[in-house]
Amino acid sequence: RVQAPHGAVYEPEAGYMDPLAVCKAFVRAASKRRAVVWEGVEAEGVVTEGGRTAAVDTTVGRVRARNVVVAAGHRTPAFVSSLGVSHDLWSQMVQVNVLVADHALPPVPAFVD
Predict the structure, then answer these.
(1) What's the angle, vertex CA 32, arms to CA 31 and CA 33, rounded to 5?
(2) More exposed terminus of the chain, fewer Cβ within 10 Å: N or C?
């Protein structure tokens, strides 16, 4: 019997994705679509005009942008709230176990947040 006071999810068909490889793939795909990646630049705030995103204030100045991707992991809800943006996001505590199988795993979808 497993003691799980906060609940548990068992996914016998679940898979695993290397987070570094996934991030690199996201960057490559975005770059092919003319996105710009600036390493080491921190967002300090989102500027809105008429209820829509207009720019992002960063440590290197203001950058005009119609769309902004917030990639702050579990800190995203608090960060977006600190900007005064209404949202329905929440953080969820999860536990991840990495198991090594002695046979090939079936192809299954995987989720990254």
Answers:
(1) 85
(2) N
